[in-house]
Amino acid sequence: MTFPLGPNRYGKSGIRLATVARDGDQHTFTDLDIQVELEGDFTAAHVEGDNASVLPTDTMRGTCFALARDGIDSVAGFTRRVAERLFVASPAVDRVRIRVIAHPWERIEVDGSPHPHSFRPGTGGDTVTTLTQDRDAEPAITGGVRGVRLLKTTGSAFSGYLQDEYTTLPETRDRIMATTVEATWGTTGPDVDHRALGIAVPVTMTATFARHDDSESVQHTLHAMGGAVLDEHADITWIRFRMPNEHHNLVDLSPYGLDNPNVVFVVADRPFGVIEGTVARDGVEPPPLPG
Question: How far is residue 30's CA from residue 17's CA, in Å, rounded to a whole number?
């Protein structure tokens, strides 16, 4: 018996691509990790073993390399060029999705000045740009960051929560709050300066994290961060956060005859809480939380 084919897609992940733009002695280094996914009419390949409509994933990789030859002025613009080429190369494709993670590098300082062609890993996490485009339609592009490590040693509380016979967590009005933020945001249209937002939005959300010293929970701070981003960046229509609660638990030093006046903590890497939430403008329907 042959069963009908359900939703499907295929593509290439882990396309590692770096470029060097040379302006005299001044070089700019771009370091990308690309994922390409195609959706369309590939029923024959699955059901009949007929690959006539299948563009090899190796060709997707080659497309990224070839189009990078002319430089990458912006990641969003590069994803547009790759998507347009894939629609031409594969007539069976109805939708292209491209996710690009840009790893930050910063110039090494030598004698107080940034070196023109030497770099070290940058701080502040990776930027994430995702294009989703249907054939003959304008692309939808979302921005984001991941791996933004934040910690504050006070200004965070957690109390007044629901408790039952299995609750052992003590309430606290002063604790360490630590998280590694992943954020994704939607914008007003195709002409937004995604590069500028990728720099400015993390500055806004991290400053809000630092200032929010009346925090009652990670959820409370998440909402404050989202509100600040929408207040300061008119081109953003919604922002979603994933913020694991990276626990720092007070160590019991009494077996050693010592007190612990909120000084020594054990960092528990697991299990950990995960808080996700979206803040959106009035009238904007953000996409659902990913499954």
Answer: 8
**Is residue 87 within 8 Å of residue 55, measured between CB atoms?**
no
Condensed to tens digits (0 to 9), the pLDDT of residues 223-280 reads: 999 999 999 999 999 999 999 999 999 999 999 999 999 999 999 989 999 999 999 9
**CA-CA distance, 289 to 238, in Å (whole number)?**
13
Say which of 43, 57, 59, 180 is annotated catalytic: 57
Please identify which of the residues 12, 194, 212, 233 carries the catalytic annotation.
Answer: 12
Judge whether residue 291 has pLDDT over 90.
no
DSSP string for residues in 192-228? S-HHHHHHHHHHHHHHHHHH-TTBSSHHHHHHHHHHH
Q: How far is it, in rounded angstroms, from Cα 137 to Cα 158?
A: 47
| Three-state SS sequence of 160-179 | CCCCCCCCCCCCECCCCEEE
CA pair distance 125, 166, nearest whole angstrom: 37
Q: pTM of the prediction?
A: 0.93
Q: Which CATH class is domain 9-137?
A: alpha beta
Provide the CATH number for the domain formed by 145-283 in this structure: 3.10.270.10
12 is catalytic: yes
Number of Cβ atoms within 10 Å of the Cβ of 256: 9
In the chain, where are the structural domains located? 9-137, 145-283
